[in-house]
Amino acid sequence: MDRINEKVRLEVEDISMVDTHEHIMSQAERNEYAVDFSYLFATYASQDLVSAGMPPRLLEAVRLPVHRFLKTFWNCHSIPPWIIPEPEREDMSLEERWQALEPFWEAIRNTAYAKQLLIAIEDIFGIDDLNRETYSHVSRAVADSRKPGWYRHIMKEKANIGISINGVRTTDVDRELFVPVMELDHFIAARSRVELGYLEEETGIAIHSLDDLVKAMHVALERYVDKGAIGIKSWLAYYRTLRYDKVSRNEAEVVFNRITSHLGEGPSWLEAKPLQDYMMHQVIKAASKQGYPCSYTPASMQITRT
Ligand SMILES: [Zn+2]
């Protein structure tokens, strides 16, 4: 029986995977920002730290290198922006940053997100724990991994991933490893004249009516398709309900007209909801025309052509 199990395991390990959901920075960005242990806390594990009581601004101070990346990434013309607080300090040494992290890390080390980090550093760097004895060793290993071919080594040779679907707001991804998904949320959730201005800048379409907005969205989508995007992803469920009601064009237009005269931050999301609902249906319709099937996950939606 054991021999059969072993045979099955080897066969399964040989099957190359399609990784359908990633947000992986480019290798050039990684070379700039992955400089020490704090790189491990770029995403979900950091939320566990905050849940364990770590003040968000202290977290940003501890993960300062990766904080700079997150600020750049989320500050592009995305609507609505992800909120990343300013670091409490910007002058902490590696040791001070570890000491600030340690009590919260010890509180979360058994969560699923923390376990993933521990598995990764053991599997990739051969370091069997993250603690006060090993943090500088982990930091050195992360910094030393900034070498050509690193992603290829991890994703192809170690993980046997055939291709990854990557949502990083650009179609300019390494096509040997990734295919891009793009988003049209900024066309759905625009709430002020300033935000419409960003859409005009992106598409070259002057937006003075609801029809113009829909047209601009189509132009953006066609460009993404031309540049090889295989799907459209929406992050809006992080900010609003997934219930996109069927609203009349007229209801959406009333909201649009209010937005065009708004120079400030715009109406509340509840007031803006009919326009968002209408635009989401337009996006799905346009994406379906491109042959993208539509799938939902709890926090986001991905319309992907396979
Ligand atoms: Zn995602």
Note down, in words, how this protein is organized.
With 306 residues, the chain is of the alpha/beta class. It has 3 domains: 45 residues, no CATH class; 111 residues, no CATH class; 124 residues, no CATH class. It contains 14 helices and 7 strands. It has a 4-stranded mixed β-sheet with strand order 4-5-7-6, covered by helices on one side. A 3-stranded parallel β-sheet has the order 1-2-3, covered by helices on one side. A hairpin with a 4-residue loop joins strand 6 and strand 7. Helix 11 packs across helix 12. The longest helix is centred in the last third of the chain and has 21 residues. The site of zinc ion has 4 residues, from loops.
Primary descriptors:
306 residues, alpha/beta, 3 domains, four-stranded mixed sheet, binds zinc ion
What is the N-to-C succession of helices and strands? HEHHHHHHHHEEEHHHEHHEE
The ligands bound in this entry are: zinc ion
> Structural class of the secondary structure composition?
alpha/beta
> What is the number of strand segments?
7
Q: What is the 3D form?
A: globular
Low-pLDDT runs of 5+ residues are none
Radius of gyration over all CA atoms, rounded: 22 Å
Proportion in β-strands: 5-15%
SSE blueprint:
Blueprint: H1 2-13, E1 17-22, H2 27-33, H3 44-51, H4 56-62, H5 64-74, H6 94-108, H7 112-125, H8 135-144, H9 150-158, E2 161-166, E3 178-180, E4 182-183, H10 185-188, H11 193-203, H12 210-226, E5 231-234, H13 249-260, H14 269-289, E6 294-296, E7 301-304
Parallel strand pairs: 1-2, 2-3, 4-5
Antiparallel strand pairs: 5-7, 6-7
Helix pairs in contact: 3-6, 4-6, 11-12, 12-14, 13-14
Bound molecules: zinc ion.
Zinc ion (ZN) binds at residues 21, 23, 167, 300.
